[in-house]
Design brief:
This protein has about 300 residues and is of the alpha/beta class. The N and C termini lie far apart (about 50 Å). The chain folds into two domains: about 180 residues, Vaccinia Virus protein VP39 (Rossmann fold), CATH 3.40.50; about 100 residues, DNA polymerase, domain 1 (Orthogonal Bundle), CATH 1.10.150.170. Helix 2 links the parallel strand 1 and strand 2. A seven-stranded mixed β-sheet has the order 3-2-1-4-5-7-6, with helices on both faces. Helix 1 crosses helix 2. The structure holds S-adenosylmethionine. S-adenosylmethionine binds next to helix 2 and strand 2.
């Protein structure tokens, strides 16, 4: 497993205006890189409530950040249930979402996200529940696979790939990540492979989004987060692909039109060249933030 490098960490701390004693919610704490920066910047008494659906990430992060004591509280669950998970811990001065999968998930062959290392075709962020990628790929019809790969992978070869998957699974189930990656690669003529990414990248993205139901609950969760902000508090989201970024941008715009928040990033914040060079995974990151307008004293 490679070391996890938090993306846009300094920018997140600055945009959230983290201050000593503040209360923060990290809705996707993962390996806790951003949460650690927030805990440091909010010392000595600031707190972070960290959520994640991945029990393994929470266990690791709990151990790694144990020195922060009761300033950090961890809860397992999906951010779609952020209101229940937050309980009475709010309102928060800052709320943060770092979308997608963690390097713990992407790099561990046995989690089944990686097309370069062979592992079981799993891709569940929460291994305690739900259908695996292998089960999904075995169950869907050819048109369902084609639609999914087109819509969530933005893959122009979706029909050919779906056809190849269905043909391959007649012979034997696609059980490993490299089984699936090889079928996808074979279905696209080599001279038409994308130049900068593996030919299976988009298909893996689509299947991962489907297995984890990644996009369906995001908009409502951002709305809930806005309601959990203290007056003058800020929420920030890092997205890694255009489908997520579109939901973030549109949700923030709608909430702004309803007078619930003010967008503070007219354009998304993106990594500086030095970060891009040091961490290639940051290349598609976009950070957007909103502020809950301060409530005038007479209305409070
Ligand atoms: C990009 S990682 C976060 C990395 C983290 N900021 C850090 O510095 O280590 C995203 C995390 O969000 C979690 N996640 C994704 N979708 C989620 C959801 N709907 N609810 C809760 N956690 C989710 C994943 O399990 C993963 O650990």
């Amino acid at each position: 497993m490679s070391t996890h490098v938090p993306v846009l960490q300094a920018e997140v701390v600055a945009l959230l205006r983290v201050r000593p004693g503040g209360r923060y919610l990290d809705a996707t704490i993962g390996l806790g890189g951003h949460a650690e920066a927030i805990l440091r910047a909010s010392a000595p008494s600031g707190s972070v409530l960290g959520l994640d659906r991945d029990a393994e990430a929470l266990a690791l992060t709990g151990r790694r950040l144990a020195a922060f004591g009761d300033r950090l509280v961890l809860r397992q669950g999906r951010y779609e249930a952020v209101v229940d998970l937050a309980g009475s811990a709010g309102p928060f001065d800052g709320i943060f979402f770092d979308l997608g999968a963690s390097s713990l998930q992407l790099d561990a062959a046995e989690r089944g996200f990686s097309f370069t290392q062979s592992g079981p075709l799993d891709m569940r962020m929460d291994r305690g529940t739900g259908e695996t990628a292998a089960e999904l790929v075995a169950r869907l019809s050819e048109p369902e696979l084609a639609n999914l790969i087109f819509e969530w992978g933005e893959e122009r070869w979706s029909r050919r790939i779906a056809r190849a998957i269905v043909t391959a699974r007649h012979d034997r189930p696609l059980a490993t990540t490299t089984d699936l990656a090889a079928v996808v690669a074979r279905s696209i003529p080599r001279r038409l492979w994308p130049r900068r990414i593996h030919p299976a990248t988009r298909t893996f993205q689509a299947i991962r989004i489907a297995v984890n139901r990644e996009l369906v609950g995001l908009g409502p969760a951002l709305g809930d987060a806005a309601r959990l902000l203290a007056s003058g508090g800020r929420a920030a989201v890092i997205s890694f692909h255009s489908l997520e970024d579109r939901i973030v941008k549109q949700t923030w715009r709608r909430l702004e039109a309803e007078g619930k928040v003010r967008v503070v990033t007219k354009r998304p914040v993106t990594p500086e060249p030095a970060e891009l060079a040091a961490n290639p995974r940051s290349r598609s990151a976009k950070l957007r933030a909103v502020e809950r307008p301060p409530v005038p004293p007479e209305a409070a």
